[in-house]
UniProtKB/TrEMBL annotation, chains A, B:
Belongs to the zinc-containing alcohol dehydrogenase family. Quinone oxidoreductase subfamily. Pfam families: ADH_zinc_N (PF00107). InterPro entries: ADH-like_C, GroES-like_sf, Mito_Enoyl-ACP_Reductase, NAD(P)-bd_dom_sf. It is found in: Mitochondrion. The keyword Ribosomal protein does not apply. Keywords: Mitochondrion, NADP, Oxidoreductase, Transit peptide. This is Alcohol dehydrogenase-like C-terminal domain-containing protein. The keyword Protein transport does not apply. It comes from the Eukaryota. Residues 160-286 form the Alcohol dehydrogenase-like C-terminal domain.
Amino acid sequence: MLPSIRCRRTNLIRRPCLSARLSTSSVLLANRAIVYSSFGNPSEVLSAITYPDLPPPPSKSLNVKYILSPINPADLNVIENKYHSKPSPVSSLSEGRHKFPEPHYVGGNEGLAEVTESVGLSEVNAATITVNPPTAYNMLHSFVEPKEGDLVMQNGANSAVGQAVIQIAARKGIRTLNFVRNRPDIDSLKNYLQSLGATHVFTYDDLKDKETVQNIKTTITKKGTSLMLNCVSGEPTKDMTRLLADSATLVSYGAMSKQPLILPTSLFIFRDLRCRGFWQSKWYEEHSIQQREELMKTLAELKLREPEYEILNLKGTASDEEVAQQVRSVIAKIQEGRYGRKVLLRFEPAQ
Amino acid sequence: MLPSIRCRRTNLIRRPCLSARLSTSSVLLANRAIVYSSFGNPSEVLSAITYPDLPPPPSKSLNVKYILSPINPADLNVIENKYHSKPSPVSSLSEGRHKFPEPHYVGGNEGLAEVTESVGLSEVNAATITVNPPTAYNMLHSFVEPKEGDLVMQNGANSAVGQAVIQIAARKGIRTLNFVRNRPDIDSLKNYLQSLGATHVFTYDDLKDKETVQNIKTTITKKGTSLMLNCVSGEPTKDMTRLLADSATLVSYGAMSKQPLILPTSLFIFRDLRCRGFWQSKWYEEHSIQQREELMKTLAELKLREPEYEILNLKGTASDEEVAQQVRSVIAKIQEGRYGRKVLLRFEPAQ
Ligand SMILES: NC(=O)c1ccc[n+]([C@@H]2O[C@H](COP(=O)([O-])OP(=O)(O)OC[C@H]3O[C@@H](n4cnc5c(N)ncnc54)[C@H](OP(=O)(O)O)[C@@H]3O)[C@@H](O)[C@H]2O)c1
Ligand SMILES: NC(=O)c1ccc[n+]([C@@H]2O[C@H](COP(=O)([O-])OP(=O)(O)OC[C@H]3O[C@@H](n4cnc5c(N)ncnc54)[C@H](OP(=O)(O)O)[C@@H]3O)[C@@H](O)[C@H]2O)c1
């Protein structure tokens, strides 16, 4: 949920900003932003702020305008001060032209911003291509590399990452065994994920039923799956490990249950389980600009379906207080869980 | 805590039986054994039984006589039915010559047994060389291979495995950061471990003290350790992970706390933690007889100090009931924890 920002003109942004990476070389300069000055519950601490108009960019810089800014779980964790990377305060703007207490932080890490060229993807795809799809792609390629016909298991299968996993796997003929939380309209979720290419969809509740587990073992996993992707941790993850093959790799990328990873030690000793983690930000740091662009190209060519989404229009004519209220209340709803749609902020121009 | 057994004459036992492996190709035949017919608390379910005298071995077999039979934690787990491998019942001996209910199981997995040659190690060393020292040795060599000057961290450092880790590491100039449970005479335990070559010894309680942790970080671990060996799981293990370097490997081989491995998912995602497990039995299965003998030779040459031990003499003149009572009560004491000595059973001859 980045607002308009100014970026130094680096190689990174020769193409339309698909770019979480942008923020590492960017300076916030103008227009409206969603900000906070103390850490806490995002549905309480967020404010909106309108900065002065952008002056023309200094040399080696350019101005970009964010078109759509998704609200990702990690954005909320940063605001709660529960994320590994700490945000840098914006203090360069304290020129007395607005009344927001200094220092403050700008929320968000991803989005679609306009520079010059047009992007060739849908706005929503372009706004959500730099964090979740590459995470899915890299997790399928950096550990145990499943081949056509192999089975990959994941939880949080309806997350944006999970949906990308399903689609990328399906393109390669990799079967997916997907787990989601139960809900009243579970069948429509199952149908939706199957329409993306999911081979099997179950709920964590199913894992409490011995017969279903036995059925999954005999008809689906057989000798077990060798790759499991973990978005959730806690109890569901522990239950799923019974479906793993010996010497399987469990890759964690999220902890949406807010529980730790709790695993019987015997899995490591007797079944040779291997636990790893994946962080897309680190992948970006460790790879060259060429490799990053190559990955974006690969992902763009996969033409993944947009995640189910909802755009929150933040009217240019609304006051900062009204905008803050809009953002806070959608976040409160997201935090209740089972929201089912990625929310993207659209900062509309004032006139 | 194996009794006298008969083994098929395989390559494995061309040399004096140093051999947990023996049991995989052995048939129990005679004399006294510590047995059980239902799973449960070993301090309650164990009995002693005297089998008829051994007949002469059939072809391709030989008779061996156990001299010392250590009581290892895994032996107790097997009896509790909490171990990965299930024991096989002994039913070939139901010839009505004793009154023990059939089927029953014989406890134990390691020991020193006599065949023909003499062994060149102390009895205690020979009786305890096939499970714990190879586990220590292989964990130091199969994952991150630490070099001279590197630091390895472990919990359960006063376990038989832990003591072997300390000594093997010290021989190679590898520093060890050791953790144990607190106790009234903690200083004498620290001195003992340091006499084995331990570089640093702390208690899990020390990890609750911020200043001590900070001190360990600045003076000992610095950028963190890259290899941690886990005998304990649960809370202490979680606390210790704060001392790990990025991309460190945590190798689990025991779960003495009876707690699962509980780790924040963030360690995997942001610090690239890698969790593995080690099982010596599997190592034996996966390696040739030559490799096994090579390892035993290497370990024998390291001349590790005997673990602190206590020999429980099971008198040949005592009744099976008396012997069972002796074994049960020492196990009850071991189960209280902080026992500090490896208990070895010596089955004394009847006359
Ligand atoms: N490591 C990386 O590099 C990386 C990259 C991208 C994302 N991530 C992480 O991946 C996770 C998903 O991100 P996203 O953008 O895909 O999120 P998203 O589209 O908002 O989806 C969130 C997912 O979490 C599930 N969830 C929420 N609360 C839960 C709970 N208490 N128990 C079980 N499941 C719960 C939701 O299921 P319901 O529908 O049942 O609520 C949904 O499947 C986040 O933790 C994010 O930080 C990590
Ligand atoms: N994976 C393998 O291949 C392999 C091979 C050998 C051994 N093992 C396992 O390694 C472990 C140690 O075996 P060992 O023969 O070395 O055992 P041992 O000499 O009997 O030592 C047991 C150790 O466990 C500690 N302990 C007991 N209860 C504890 C608790 N509740 N919390 C924390 N620590 C506790 C003891 O510390 P205190 O003095 O404080 O009681 C002691 O350090 C066992 O779990 C065994 O099954 C595994």
